[in-house]
């Protein structure tokens, strides 16, 4: 079938030779091109591609350090970390999801919500990354899962440290809380600072000492495959745990304050006047910061935000109150700087006063008047008429000018974020408001009503300044920073703000004496708390009237905030207290006993005082509260 | 009569192939992520391949010549069958399932087309007349179009190339070659317009791999990273991070050479290329020594085709050719292609060892 032609073999071989020779030359060129290219990639560009291969291979993974703990002045833990277990499922490794879930259901409690959340997360998960099935496993559940882990393919038990506030809302306004960072909200330098962190302090020292508490992030270089799975760890840079914080706050004293306020909104600030240490910083009502750590549910947050007691307000540093009569010693200080003022000169208090050529009556809190009143009696019995006249005589600007000596109208500089300035009305301020100002407003400002607003912290700082003979110490929450490894404490040095000039200081001694009469004197407005005390207290009561909304009532009503400022023991005070109880009536009744309890605790170590016979018994028995 | 003569084996070629098979095993073990099971599978495949080669070497060239036409026609029929009843994998219809085996008739055409054309030309004196060249071109176009229709442009071009090599070796005049080349150049835009989007993208990516680093450019970029990171001496055996961490796709098949590059570097490349070129050289020697035109044409074209298989795969890995599915002979894991390559080498051996003693 096949025909083989008669061919000239030699000619054909020569033809083939020439063709193959051409092919060899052509092929040689191709090989040269290939080798050039390979040489270019492997020798010239080797470094570049080796780096790329390394980048492909190795990814740095952050290791989050443990956040520093927060302790009170005696070492009581206010904020710590404890491990929580999270159950994760890697879907790519699970062969039979439904069967696995059924098995897990027998080990841990899984409700319908957990399963719904899981299914939702399952849809948006990245390959080979675990999907959280349930977090916050109990220790028992975690142990049960751990035992069965070998037979649960694709299931992982992840432990992480969660912030925990063991005393709940105690001192929440000083401590603050942490909450989850939303990475999408972080930009620029901030994003770099929080790289690898999942939580950040939002309020209080948690926020203010963010850097100290955070510590330093660690890294591990992990060999990752193309699917993003860890193959092995190549290098580790260990993280440095955050420093612990020692607070000046005394948790027990804080608890006493919070308990004595009970469900009444209010605020208590207790300072050590010599150091500025904040012993107590209460803003009642409190709330549980633990709810915020992993994101508060919207419903719970709305409940907190709309609570008429406004628990989320930090009253101690942010609450603005008219100081009422507690401001009187400070006005007296202003008057004492005037050459025309004589503290011993009497006026007569008939129970009311009016401006010249004006029929409007300004009433004293004692309707029938106090009779002859000098400065000592005006402070001891809190005579309003005396201070109406003083205000009228001094004028608004002169009267309020000296308040700045005590820090009113300025931030105290406490180490907490978001402090309020308060408001001291001056001529300049009045001009700025562009509202008319009447002499009557000056008069009521003279008894701590009107536009004058102070924070409880300012009030405490001011009274501490009197107690510390005119040296104002900066209030400080944090006492020291503790290295978590060596346990060495770096204490913070007390910081004093510019003191009151020497020539004005002499008037402070008079104030201390007169304020002591408020508690110790036979007619003192707070004499009830002085009964039986083994130490001497100086103080001043106050009742501020203001129109404010009331729950269950349309519109506003006239309320009385009870205030009390005090320091003890005279003459060498170790504690200064300011108490504000909202809508509680008379300061002497509602606020003063709280201050006494705190002072007792600080000075005596217990709250209640055994009666002591410091006076004649019949006098003691006839004493009544004003 | 020595053992190699009795079994019709060309000793140098056989030894070179054995060495290559050893390299293949080493690369397969590493590229599969130290999978011994996989390496054993490779060993079995290679053993079968060698068996096929030795078997093919036993058949005298005369038989091949006589069977050229039936084999070619059978292959074309199989290609038609693929288009009719073939199995679809990866979006292309290239396979015929025969029980547990699935064969790729397009691979078979890499052997059948040179045989057919060699037979066609050897029936008349060489160099061929223009009419015969046109006839050969028509024969060639049928399987090429059928394969391109699957679609498997890479194999279609290889088959086309195999035919062109025979045409070239048969002595087609340079004038004809130049005219055809100019025509092809003119037809390039038409071809471009008829290509699939992904095929066009592959050519585009050749020049701009960074345009789509996680999509179409991913293969090319990861292969270049593997090659470049190899350096002069390579990272060492079992140290191809690109393969072990699965950054490099198809590391056991089309991109096995990239794994080899990362592990053995430029030095390894030269040695491997030397081995391949030796095989090509041996093939060309056999062509020279062949005693009649069918054997000469067939041996020459098989040797040159082998060279192109190597060059196209390496060029693709190195990034000077577009990503086409051409396996590297012996090193890439692939059933049909290995068998066909080995069968071709067996034919070469047969041509070499069945010479009639003339002088």
Identify the biggest protein-protein contact and residues per side: A-B, 45 and 53 residues
What is the end-to-end distance of chain B?
19 Å
> How many angstroms separate the termini of chain A?
138 Å
Total count of domains of chain B: 2
Radius of gyration of chain B: 20 Å
Q: What is the subunit arrangement here?
A: heterodimer
The CATH class label of the largest domain in chain A is: Alpha Beta
Mean pLDDT of chain B: 87
The CATH fourth-level homologous superfamily of the largest domain in chain A: DD-peptidase/beta-lactamase superfamily
Number of helical regions of chain A? 25
Order of helices and strands of chain B: HHHHEEEHHHHHHHHHH
User: β content of chain B, as a range?
Assistant: under 5%
Poorly predicted segments of chain A = 613-626
Describe this structure in words.
The complex is a heterodimer of chains A (626) and B (359). Chain A folds into 2 domains: 83-160, Penicillin-binding protein 2a (Domain 2); 251-307 and 314-622, Beta-lactamase (3-Layer(aba) Sandwich), CATH 3.40.710.10. Helix content of chain A is 37%, strand content 21%. Chain A has 25 helices and 21 strands. In chain A, the strands form 6 sheets. In chain A, strands 2, 3, 4, 5, 10, 17 and 18 form a 7-stranded mixed sheet that branches. Chain A has a 5-stranded antiparallel sheet with strand order 12-11-21-20-19. A 3-stranded antiparallel sheet of chain A has the order 1-8-9. In chain A, strand 19 (538-550) and strand 20 form a beta hairpin. Residues 613-626 of chain A have low confidence and may be disordered. Chain B has 359 residues and is mainly alpha-helical. Chain B folds into 2 domains: 1-58 and 209-359, no CATH class; 65-195. The relative contact order of chain B is 0.15.
